[in-house]
Write a structure and sequence with these properties.
The protein is mainly α. Among the domains are: about 35 residues; about 80 residues, Cytochrome Bc1 Complex, Chain D, domain 2, CATH 1.10.760. About 70% of the residues lie in helices and about 0% in strands. It is elongated.
């Protein structure tokens, strides 16, 4: 039944669809050869203006790109490297409010490289860390706090080892005492 209905609708003339071919007819036709030439000249002039405008826009865009390239190449290498590598994941000004000492920046970059798969080649981490340390250094009390935290992290394996030794030495003594009792 559905196929029959579909076939019937497709077989009906366009008049059933309320389409009037007169709506699409040219309302006024070109009355003379002179009028046709004038319209053709207008059309050609419009095409020439559009082509000139397109050429000017392309020239402006080329100048803009050349200026951007020149400005980019004028930046120091560490700045370009940092922007190239870090803006893969972060917006350009992401690290403006971040402050770390050299070790802190190295640790941040190590984390990004190994945990977040940041694309860094050999030697780039230290170049970026040096640039960020120089540009966004930690100062005041924050410098002292960061240094203390880094020392705590550096010595944490030692603390864990000492805690293990102390714990197991007490367990060993308790085991010996309970054995001899």
């Amino acid at each position: 039944m559905l196929l029959f209905l579909l076939g019937w609708l497709l077989a009906q003339p366009a008049a059933l669809a309320d389409i009037d071919p007169a709506d699409y007819a040219l309302k006024s036709s070109i009355s003379s050869e002179k009028e046709r030439k004038r319209m053709q000249a207008e059309f050609d002039a419009d095409k020439i203006r559009e082509a000139e405008l397109q050429r000017q826009q392309e020239e402006i865009e080329a100048q803009r790109l050349a200026a951007e390239k020149t400005a980019w190449e004028a930046l120091p290498y560490p700045v370009r490297l940092t922007r190239t590598r870090c803006t893969v994941c972060h917006v350009a000004d992401y690290y403006i409010n971040l402050r770390h000492n050299r070790i802190g920046w190295e640790l941040v970059i190590l984390r990004m490289q190994y945990l977040n798969a940041a694309p860094l080649a050999a030697g780039e981490r230290s170049t970026i860390a040096a640039h960020l340390t120089e540009t966004y250094p930690v100062t005041g009390d924050a410098a002292l706090i960061e240094a203390l935290l880094q020392l705590a992290v550096a010595f944490s394996p030692l603390w864990l080892w000492l805690a293990w030794k102390i714990t197991f030495s007490r367990i060993g003594k308790n085991a010996k005492q309970s054995f001899h009792s």
